[in-house]
Amino acid sequence: MNTLISLLLSIINNTLTDNTAREIARQLIRAYHDFDNIKASQIAERSFCNTSTVNRFCKSLGFQSFLDLKSYITVSHGVRESQLLHHMQVTDGRRILNNINALSNGYFDEKSFIENCQKYNDIIAKAPSAVVVGAVYPEALTFHYMEDMIEMGKCIYNTPINRQLSVPSERPETAVILISFTGRLFRYCTAEFNEICEKYPATIVMSADEEFLKNSPGGGFRLPFRGDDEVNNAAFIEMMRYLKYDYYIRHYQKA
């Protein structure tokens, strides 16, 4: 995994308020594919701080300065991209589907699942950026998916969950991915759930609870399993792996 992107995603996930560190991390992810043309002053302006704050942030990650971080990204990006392309080229989509079927406890409708994946990725491809919001552990399981999607040029990050569902200030066309295996989180935060769905038309709800899937403005994504134990966690990781693979084949590779 790309250590820097993982660090930035971790900072975003573990910062419960929209503070400066969280905003700098978001802006660094947004600028990832244009770093040759980005200056510390631009990141500072977008993060509503000054260049000294940006440099202090970079030092907190183990770099000497923003220029040191920029140099690291310039070198590591090409290496990480080659790794990603190799992994995708040797990925067997059929094998992933078989893995999901084996882990699904009999709830896997392959045709419907593939259609959902394609619809999901079409929405993600059209959106300028995407935000993952969900129950704490399922959201954490999306880290590798988000990292590879960032490598494929899609600005995507997660947002921390405290006692309520919330999305950071984003444009209405942002894709919002709401995840709750059982739907308990949505039931607990029904008002916030409805508010997000109303504000963001490209909201995709991932759950096994049909009640919330039908309210998803961007289309409901029924999870191919029921429950939230370790087996379901493994199935979810394979599901995100297939989503990433489908995005690579149908959107990134053709670009």
Number of strands: 5
Task: Briefly note the CATH topology name of the largest domain.
Answer: Rossmann fold
Strand line-up in the sheet with most strands: 2-1-3-4-5
User: What general form does the structure show?
Assistant: globular
Poorly predicted segments: none
What is the count of structural domains?
2
The total count of helices amounts to 13
The CATH architecture category of the largest domain equals 3-Layer(aba) Sandwich
Structural class: alpha/beta
CATH homology superfamily of the largest domain: Glucose-6-phosphate isomerase like protein, domain 1
Span from first to last CA?
24 Å
Task: List its traits.
8% strand; 5-stranded parallel sheet; 2 domains; globular; Arc Repressor Mutant, subunit A; alpha/beta
Explain this structure to me?
- This protein has 255 residues and is of the alpha/beta class.
- It folds into 2 domains: 3-86, Winged helix-like DNA-binding domain superfamily/Winged helix DNA-binding domain (Arc Repressor Mutant, subunit A); 92-252, Glucose-6-phosphate isomerase like protein, domain 1 (Rossmann fold, 3-Layer(aba) Sandwich).
- Helix content is 58%, strand content 8%.
- Strands 2-1-3-4-5 form a 5-stranded parallel β-sheet.
- Helix 12 links the parallel strand 4 and strand 5.
- Helix 3 crosses helix 4 (51-60).
- The radius of gyration is 18 Å and the shape is globular.
